[in-house]
Amino acid sequence: MKVLIVEDEAMARKKLASTLKELYPDTEIEGETGSVSETIAWLKEPGHEPDIIFMDVELSDGDCFGIFRQADIRANVIMTTAYDHYAVKAFEVESIDYLLKPIEPGSLKRAVERCMARMKAMRQTGAQGNAAEDGEKAPETAAAMAAAAAIAEKNIRKRFLVRLNDTIVPIPVSEVAYFYSEDKTTYLVTRSGQKYVEDFSLDIAMEQLDPATFFRISRNCIISVSAISSITKIGSRFRIEPEPETGFDLIVSRSRTDDFLHWLEDK
Questions:
Q1: Residues 117 and 155: beta-carbon distance below 8 Å
Q2: pLDDT in tens, 57-71
Q3: What burial letters (b/e) apply to 213-223, b meaning 16+ CB within 10 Å?
Q4: Any residues with CB less than 8 A from the CB of 98 and at least 6 apart, and which?
Q5: Which 3 state secondary structure label does DSSP give 211?
Q6: pTM of the predicted model, to two decimals?
């Protein structure tokens, strides 16, 4: 596991590297940077291809989000910060996890395991794609299928945690009717009609939901099959009547109508 640590405090870099080595002895610390400019320069160097980047938000010359605007980041990113108000922006740049300092070993291990599961799934997908291009049959043995299913199951959320002031409320996924975004904010709506603000994007939510149960009907909405009351055809698109009601129209994007119908037919 090749790692880049982006952190402007020397002691924090040392502590993180030490903890990673304890948990994962095969960890290779490929680089350590402490600023936006230094990190961009490091990433643009040929041969620098870390598997995971641990990235502090506030660096010596600005916040880390400037790095994403100037460098092509292909590695899995785990944000590390002492502040919780950067969570939404962290997930907008598709970071895998968001760890608050001081970082606990259990939280660190959870984040790394998520990255490793994602990398394994991508390697399997790539191997199958290469086999298909070579005219070979992609492996579909019971063992391979079971492994893929285990990875998918590991990443599927069982519940979401929502914050209400100083209280954390667990919401089972079975109680979620739909998610929608508005003004760059993600909302979770339960089957009983309760609405909560979440600190992640719909892209992140979809990665953690069972695709057999949830479908992303547009850029702004993900809906559970259990929340669909009826469907009305409007030209080449569909309008969904959800339960509970949204107060605004839920329209299936034109480019997703065929996939949406196939998804419904499999229910």
A1: yes
A2: 999 999 999 999 899
A3: bbbbbbebbbb
A4: 78, 79, 81, 86, 87, 90, 91, 199
A5: coil
A6: 0.51
